Amino acid sequence: MEKPIIFSTEIVQAILDNRKTMTRRVIKKDVSNRFDIDVDGSVVAYIDQATGDSYNLIDIAPYQVGDTLWVREAFCEIPYKYEHILIENGHITVPKIAYKVDSKIDYTGIWKPPIHMPKGLARIWLKITNVRIERLRDITFDDCISEGMLNYGIYVNIYAAFHDFWDKLNAKHGYGWDKNPWVWVIEFERVRR
Prior knowledge:
- The chain is of the alpha+beta class.
- The chain folds into 2 domains: 2-73 and 118-191, Sulfate adenylyltransferase; 75-112, no CATH class.
- It is built from 4 helices and 12 strands; from the N terminus they run βαββββαββββββααβ.
- The chain has helices at residues 9-16, 57-60, 141-146, 158-170; strands at residues 2-6, 22-26, 35-37, 43-47, 54-55, 68-72, 75-77, 84-87, 90-93, 97-99, 125-135, 182-191.
- The strands form 4 sheets. The chain has a 5-stranded mixed β-sheet, with no helix packed on it.
- The chain starts with a strand and ends with a strand.
């Protein structure tokens, strides 16, 4: 199944640089005390508190292994004065799109947020290879690298880089590092459409 996913400009850059192959998304519904936890601490099932029924985690995941994600990123239509190609007897208009991550021109004021990107303008496609659930702070060193943190800013400590990046995007919504929310861990690879 094809589904959209939103990424910030700096994360789009990490994907284009082949540094990011994993993302974490907050599980926004209350799942406290609703997971069946194995002895090694891994989540093995979701328990419906009303019925007592147990569900395989894959059955409740918003993304499934094998799904294809099309990346929504900041973009804009290039302003009129730049969207002409000179021909012999005048100009012909050709619609052009700029992607914020690699635009050489700053179109401040006309960039559109990723949520508004239609599927037809997507240029990055990802195939989901694995999905699991864990607490945010259970992230490993290797996961931080897969999250694209290896070259993130001036950080020496890769965990600090991920912590700060996570809080920049999620703390204002109540899902900061200190809250240690349950998250979907989604692994992916880039594919051609």
